[in-house]
Design goal:
The complex is a heterodimer. Chain A is mostly beta strands. Chain A contains one helix and six strands. Classes of the chains: A mainly beta, B alpha+beta.
């Protein structure tokens, strides 16, 4: 039962209040008509799958309803940081997947 | 404590004094129908042993007689069924944990006709047929019988083998008990209330932290409960125990939970606990829950879970009367029970020597200590010499004798190739494995340590503190108290508790710490008989060697191939020995093997505890519309649509579904029908950017939607597939009322919020879900206007003032109303939206008016038929997430610059010829409606492997047209209108004609009246 800190509520909340919403920092192309089929397919389907820190989105659907970003380690499940959409991805700092909190 | 035992007529193996049982009480209980006496405080195991009963079960595969192995939750053999009444029978309980109560009725398992004479014990003689993995190699075919031969495992062998193997029988009646559930937060969760756990809880509580102390046993105390020598702070250990519990109960911020197992640890220190509340009571109150699930979020955890003693692996090490040494000491001191009168101790550690001396002190003859090591420690040897016990060192156990009770141990040593030592109880002691399951579940890593001969933590983990025997694989009481106290203090201080502490409790008269233990067995010489590694699943050393011979080298593979460690005891007494045997077979170090994954639950947890109150009506939330009571009063038959209950049809007396639905459809087309549309999703979209937002998220042009008008709108995923549809109604320049499908409401809102919050951040637009705020009453049919006109105020219903797809705001029956002139039936239609609290009263009035005009209520079934007659699609019926708007003949937004999904519509796969296209189907054979999902083919009997041309998406009998109709998706279907295709069925293909997907009023004239 992960605890996720919602940056809008400014509280740790249990993961059942959230819904996973895929990889973060994937911007919709500003001119979709100008994208080639291959580039558009990459935008739709291609995602990184690291064994390590992963920037991803969570939707606080049973809370404030906001979308937020998190940096989570895919092996240890530690969440190093959460931040608002539009903010820069923070550096997690610990390559072994442990968090400093 | 004395040597005297009670008179032979009752509890012949109970000592006359000592123990923690209540000697003033007496309990009558039965086991397999035989009546015995026990005492309050006894477990079923201790009471049976007091009565000299050792044979308590038959093993899983071989049906070998089995006895009580231990005194705790690690018990592998003594599994019983406790039957409280005809509805409450719990199988597979460990007799060492069952607390007896007056009238308890327990039964052994897996035996027929009786425990003493079990017919299936023949399995033991033909055990060669059942080695590890036998079902991959035997009991198949014969191939010559072809199909029948392939079925023999499933039809013949498996049922028979399953009947013969197994544990208890699960009850089949509904569970009559209540189960409760609670959440709790605490600063420090202490797991285990032995000396270390008690000291930790004390320290944490004194420091000011909130504490939960949980112990799986009925009484807190752990190893102190069988400790009669040690003194703590100058008093007997039991006095210190009582005083400490008293002190803990004086704090409001401390909760002590006996009979509570911490069964699982989950991320971020959430733990699952199950508290057993009433199973030990003779007459539990029916209102009291039987068990309670606790979900505890702890800031710090102290793990004081102790150790589990390891059995030795030698031939025939599983007979009744062969027990773990420390457990025998527990029966002696805690329950005043002696497990036998002449014992042999098979030792691989010095611990056993102390137990041997103890037994002699209580009148038990210890025939010999058989030590598999070359020599024991000085202190241990001195102790047993003083007690007059003979020791044979450097011995090998060749086997044991005695079918229903051990009668002798055969040993080989320097002085004799084989010596048989008569006995009636055998004690095994081979070191201890710390109980680190929860540590592992908290992602602590374990590794084999040669010096301790145990799996030990590799490194500490944040917020988790090990205390007592679990941290060092043994140790003294004094050491446990100190380590527990320090752990509790550290944990409490980490949470900010800062009060001063008293000093650490001090123990004296502690026996020395015996930490010398023999290595885990790598090779076991088995000349005759079998050496058991996993008692509960009947896995022997031979099974493990077969696995390694067949190429299984990983311990995870060996586990699954042999099933060692997979029984309800999850390998508590077998995992380490299995590692040893595998390491020996592969000739590697144990450390190289790692270990199998520890998974919750630590001990079995009932489904009832996990379900709690979420049963029957409360299993899933049920959503009812405000009109529900009126529909039920009308006798409507309901269907579940997701979590919603929707009226499916309203049968009159004597009607079945078909006649009711036919009548409802005819009523709508001939006069008027009334339908509850309240479950549809509704979203208010407001703000200066609302129109632009809707335009970007739907296929249709919505920026130019006139105020006071509605438009049917299609929503695509970014990948271009139809996701949802609904009506967008413009109430004002910056305010829209948008509907969604019933099942899609939450998904559509999330989809919209995603784009608004993270992509279209340039727009000022806000969304509000109003699904439950508005009740919706659809009024559909030629007399719809006639029904509504006298009821509405301030709204001109004439066709010029309110044409099809217009909206008006006003009042109906003096209640606020949003009126949409929309139709899902193809008739003149309105959707009356009123605040939910008024919906039922408005429904009742509208219905009364409609029925006066020969109208009727109609349900979802009639709604489906009526829309299909018009070719209106239902998302999720005509679409499945892989269908584009072009496929369905819907608008494709070609003229718009961009919207969500548009770019995907021009991908090659989305425009290639042969895509599925929505068409209608007519049966050409005069038969009934086609089945939904039927595949359609070019020829009546295509060869296997031929791809289908399409499939039937919706199919109904149309009362309006008096014939069956269907909609289908057919590859390139629009060009094939007029063609004949086939629907293969078991009794022969049906012939079907492809037609346009609209069967009634194709020009739509009936909509515009």
């Amino acid at each position: 039962m992960l605890l996720i800190r919602c940056p809008f509520c400014e509280e740790d909340r249990p993961e059942v209040e959230f819904r996973y919403a895929g990889e973060a920092h994937i911007a919709r192309p500003s001119d979709p008509a100008g994208e080639s089929d291959g580039a558009w397919a990459d935008f739709l389907y291609l995602r990184t799958n690291p064994k390590g820190w992963h920037a991803e989105r969570w939707h606080h659907v049973h809370g404030c309803g906001r979308f937020l970003n998190a940096v989570r380690h895919t092996v240890t499940d530690r969440i190093a940081a959460t931040y608002k959409p539009g903010e820069a991805r923070p550096d997690p700092g610990r390559p072994d997947g442990e968090a400093n909190r | 404590m004395t040597r005297e035992r009670l008179p032979a007529t009752e509890e012949p193996f109970r000592l006359a004094s000592g123990g923690r049982i209540d000697r003033t009480g007496r309990i009558t209980f039965s086991f397999d129908g035989n009546v015995y006496y026990g005492r309050p405080g006894d477990t079923l195991a201790s009471a049976l042993l007091a009565n000299g009963v050792h044979l308590v079960g038959r093993s899983f595969k071989y049906h070998r007689p089995r006895g009580i192995l231990s005194a705790g939750s690690e018990e592998s053999n003594a599994l019983v069924t406790v039957r409280r009444d005809w509805r409450r029978a719990t199988p597979n309980l460990r007799a060492t944990e069952v607390e007896i109560y007056e009238g308890l009725a327990a039964e052994s398992q897996n035996r027929w006709p009786s425990l003493e004479r079990d017919a299936a014990s023949i399995n033991d003689r033909v055990s060669g047929l059942f080695p590890a993995g036998f079902y991959y190699k035997t009991f198949m075919g014969p191939k010559s019988l072809g199909r029948a031969g392939r079925a023999t495992w499933k039809r013949l062998y498996e049922p028979a083998i399953r009947r013969m193997a197994g544990l208890g029988r699960a009850p089949i009646d509904a569970d009559p008990d209540r189960y409760a559930s609670r959440y709790a937060h605490c600063d420090v969760l202490v797991i285990g209330a032995g000396p270390a756990g008690l000291a930790a809880a004390l320290a944490a509580a004194e420091a000011g932290a909130s504490v939960i102390l949980a112990d799986e046993q009925a009484e807190p105390g752990g190893s102190l409960l069988s400790e009669t020598h040690v003194r703590i702070d100058g008093a007997p250990a039991w006095d210190w125990l009582a005083a400490t519990l008293q002190r803990l109960s004086s704090f409001d911020r401390v909760r002590v939970l006996p009979r509570t197992t911490v069964f699982g640890a989950y991320p971020d220190r959430m733990l699952g606990l199950v508290e057993r509340i009433s199973d030990h009571l003779a007459a539990p109150d029916a209102n009291v829950p039987r068990e309670r699930l606790w979900q505890v979020r702890a800031r710090e955890i102290v793990l004081a879970s102790g150790t589990i003693e390891r059995p030795l692996v030698f031939p025939d090490n599983d007979r009744p009367g062969i027990m773990l040494a420390e457990s025998v000491a527990t029966y002696l001191h805690r329950y005043a029970v002696i497990a036998g009168t002449h014992a042999v101790v098979v030792a691989a550690s010095d611990d056993a020597y102390a137990v041997a001396a103890d037994l002699v002190g209580h009148g038990v003859r210890v025939e010999r200590i058989v030590d598999v090591r070359e020599t024991a420690g000085r202190a241990a040897r001195d102790l047993v010499e003083a007690a007059g016990i003979g020791v044979t060192s450097g011995a090998v156990v060749l086997g044991t004798r005695g079918r229903r009770r051990v009668s002798a141990v055969d040993v080989a040593h320097a002085e004799a190739r084989s010596e048989s030592i008569a006995c009636d109880v055998v004690l095994m002691s081979a070191g201890r494995q710390p109980t680190l399951h929860l540590f592992s579940q908290l992602r602590g890593r374990l590794a084999w340590q040669e010096d301790r001969q145990a799996l030990m933590p590799v490194a500490a983990i944040d917020h988790v503190h090990l205390a007592g025997a679990v941290a060092v694989a043994g140790g003294t009481i004094g050491a446990a108290l100190e380590s527990g106290f320090n752990a509790g203090e550290t944990a409490a201080r980490t949470t900010g508790a800062s009060a001063a502490l008293p000093r650490v409790p001090l123990a004296d008269a502690d026996p020395p710490a015996w930490l010398e233990t023999a290595p885990a067995p790598r090779a076991v010489r088995v000349a005759r008989g079998r050496a058991f590694v996993d008692f509960q699943n009947d896995v022997t050393t031979k099974d493990i060697r077969i696995a390694t011979h067949e190429g299984f080298r990983s311990i995870e593979h060996v586990k699954r191939y042999t099933t060692t460690g997979m029984a309800t005891d999850q390998g508590k007494t077998s995992n380490v020995n299995a590692l040893g045997v595998v390491a020996g077979a592969l000739d590697v170090d144990i450390a190289a093997l790692g270990h199998t994954t520890f998974r919750p639950p630590f001990t079995p947890v009932s489904f009832g505890a996990l379900a709690g109150e979420c049963r029957n009506q409360l299993f899933d939330p049920v959503r009812l519309t405000p009109i529900d009571p009126s529909a039920r009063a009308r006798g409507a038959v309901f269907e579940a649509v997701g979590q919603w209950q929707r009226a499916r049809y309203y049968p009159r007396v004597g009607e079945d579904m078909r006649t009711a639905v036919d009548r409802e459809c005819r009523a709508v087309r001939a006069s008027v029908g009334i339908f509850d549309g309240s479950t549809l999703g509704k979203i208010e979209v407001a703000g200066p950017g609302a129109a632009e937002f809707l335009d970007r998220i739907y296929v249709n042009n919505l920026v130019n939607l006139t105020v006071g008008r509605c438009r049917y709108a299609v929503m695509l995923s970014e990948a271009g597939y139809v996701m949802d549809d609904g009506i967008v109604a413009r109430l004002a320049r910056d305010r829209f009322h948008v509907t969604t499908t019933t099942g899609g409401a939450a998904g559509v809102l999330a989809h919209m919020e995603d784009y608004l919050q993270t992509e279209f951040t340039d727009l000022q637009c806000w969304l509000t879900s109003v699904t439950e705020q508005w009740g919706v009453i659809a009024v559909q049919g030629p007399k719809a206007r006639e029904v509504l006109a006298p009821l509405v105020e301030d709204v001109d219903l004439s066709v010029s003032a309110l044409p099809h797809m217009a909206l008006a705001e006003g009042r109906i029956l003096d209640v606020p109303m949003r009126l949409f002139r929309v139709s899902f039936t193809g008739e003149l239609g309105y959707e009356v939206n009123v605040p939910a609290g008024h919906a039922r009263a408005v429904w009742d009035e509208i219905l009364k008016r409609a029925e006066a005009l020969d109208g009727a209520p109609y349900g979802t079934e009639a709604m489906h038929v009526l829309r299909a007659e018009k070719g209106y699609v239902i998302v999720g019926q005509e679409s499945d997430g892989t269908v584009t708007p072009a496929d369905l003949g819907l608008p494709t937004g070609a003229a718009k610059r961009d919207f969500v999904g548009k770019r995907s519509l021009s991908r090659p796969d989305m425009v290639k010829p042969g895509r599925p296209e929505l068409v209608g189907l007519e049966c050409m054979d005069g038969g009934g409606p086609l089945e939904e999902g039927l595949q359609l083919t070019q020829i009546p009997d295509p060869p296997a492997g031929t791809p289908a041309s399409g499939y039937v998406t919706s199919s109904y009998y149309s009362a309006t047209l008096d014939r069956p109709i269907a909609l289908a998706l057919v590859s390139g279907g629009r060009a094939r209108i007029g063609d004949t295709v086939f629907a293969p069925m078991p009794k022969g293909a049906r012939q079907v004609r492809i037609v346009a997907p609209v069967f009634y009023d194709p020009k739509g004239g009936r909509l515009h009246v």
